[in-house]
Amino acid sequence: MTPGKAIRKHCVECVGSPYEIKNCRGDFLYATEKKCPFYRYRMGRGRPSVKLIRKYCLMCMVGSYLAVNQCNSKTCLLRPYRMGNNPNYQLSNVERKKRAMRLNNFSQNPGLS
After folding, report:
1. What is the value of pTM for the model shown?
2. What's the maximum distance between 2 C-alpha atoms anywhere in the chain?
């Protein structure tokens, strides 16, 4: 599933029906009382960034990077994109090493989240 399709399905779940999406004003998220970052993409058009999903996940987890990292929601369609990366792409060996080093630094300094 692409990030755009995941957002579209999330929007359908949020409003309750694909027929109600056009009526969504995107001005209020129940969990955070902020404007919805997905409003522009609710109709399944455009190419949203996975960074936008990351931003939403941070709002959902009240700004905690650690909570986003440890999210184990089985029903959230956005979960695979929560780290701001598209799991449909494979990483190069160089990028894997960079991320492993960042993760290692984070685990040594967990108070930085």
Report:
1. 0.69
2. 49
